[in-house]
Design a protein that fits this description.
166 residues, alpha+beta, four-stranded antiparallel β-sheet, 5 helices, disordered C terminus, Put_radical_SAM-like_N
């Protein structure tokens, strides 16, 4: 009975949950309805949470999207050998930027990602720009397919207030 470790959270108050952001975004109020999957069986649980307390659920961390750029200045590539393994992960994940303050180039965003950022007003995002000239930026990133950063920032700044470092 009840929610157990290993259960998969499918929906929260009728809204699909893909990751921690969806969970936090949709968890409102003192009562929540959770749709759970356990061994291919779906069940619905209602949580009543005392005011000021969280649901007490621990979600498995999402798979971090890694960077496909080959930046000439990549600080991760310049780290000395022998450090903790997590330090060598080259993430390029807007979710990590929103949740933990990691910097992203936005070069790996999909159309779906852009829509989600706007829909959920995910801000701030910490964007590493390097250059607003697309040709030069692509050269610096070592990624000839990186999109026009100004188009992403203009769309984002007018709707979601994505912040850039000064």
């Amino acid at each position: 009975a009840g929610i157990r470790a290993g259960d998969r959270l499918l929906k929260l108050d009728g809204k699909k949950v893909e990751d921690l952001i969806d969970y936090l975004f949709n968890l409102e109020g003192p009562r929540a309805e959770l749709e759970i999957e356990r061994a291919d069986v779906h069940g619905v649980f209602v949580l009543d949470m005392p005011e000021g307390e969280d649901a007490g659920l621990e979600l498995e961390h999402f798979k971090v999207r890694t960077c496909k750029n080959k930046c000439k200045f990549c600080f991760v590539s310049q780290l000395p050998k022998g450090l903790r393994r997590p330090l060598y992960i080259k993430d390029e994940d807007y979710r990590m930027s929103f949740l933990y303050g990691n910097f992203v180039t936005l070069a790996g965003l999909t159309g779906r990602d852009r829509k989600r950022i706007l829909r959920q007003h995910l801000s701030p995002l910490y964007v590493s720009v390097h250059s607003t000239d697309t040709r030069l930026r692509n050269e610096l990133l070592g990624n000839p397919k990186a999109p026009d950063i100004m188009a992403d920032l203009v769309i984002s700044l007018t709707t979601a207030y994505i912040s850039t470092p000064r």
